[in-house]
Please model this.
Amino acid sequence: MSTQPAPAPLLIACALGIEQLALRAGDRGGAGGPVTVLRTGMGPAAAERSVTRMLADPALRDAAVLATGFCAGLAPGMHPGDLVVAEETRDPRGTTACVGTDLLVKELGRAVPGRTVHTGPLTGSDHVVRGHERSDLRATGAIAVDMESAATLLSAVRAGERPVAAVRVVVDAPEHELVRIGTVRGGISAFRVLRSVLPAFFEWHRSLLLPRR
Model:
């Protein structure tokens, strides 16, 4: 009797404890396979180490990887609580193409109705970006910046061929600069949005498991 192969797992990577808390608070199940939420720690080096180590585990060898958490918006008119779906991630080491962007946009519209979803390049930085650096990064075509997504996805594809994506929630924008990340939990809408996005991630993951025609 033949047996069906086990569904490919999903690795969701975030940097901060508050991001992990939001994701766990929103987890109602419904993924297409096993799901691991990994807190990598802050910065590209921490993300690279954590993701590489996790994907070395045979149980996660073929995992799809999705980077998420908060980001700084670069485009005028962005607001805290807006969503960013990366078409690609960039850092000085290279560019990583994302998979299933259109599906994520559609599913996020269902999961978090009324929230603006932006698509475009998501760039990486090794520090918090402020002031004129925003304009410089915007001039490259990037629509948002964070410290871990690019390193997460680059590490993931270097560990083996797999689907990757990045979805971030804007917590800091040109007209809405954040004083400190701790204020998010005190009431900024980004936390509530991040708590609501998992159904979209699970639909993205399920779509990867469907037979291709």
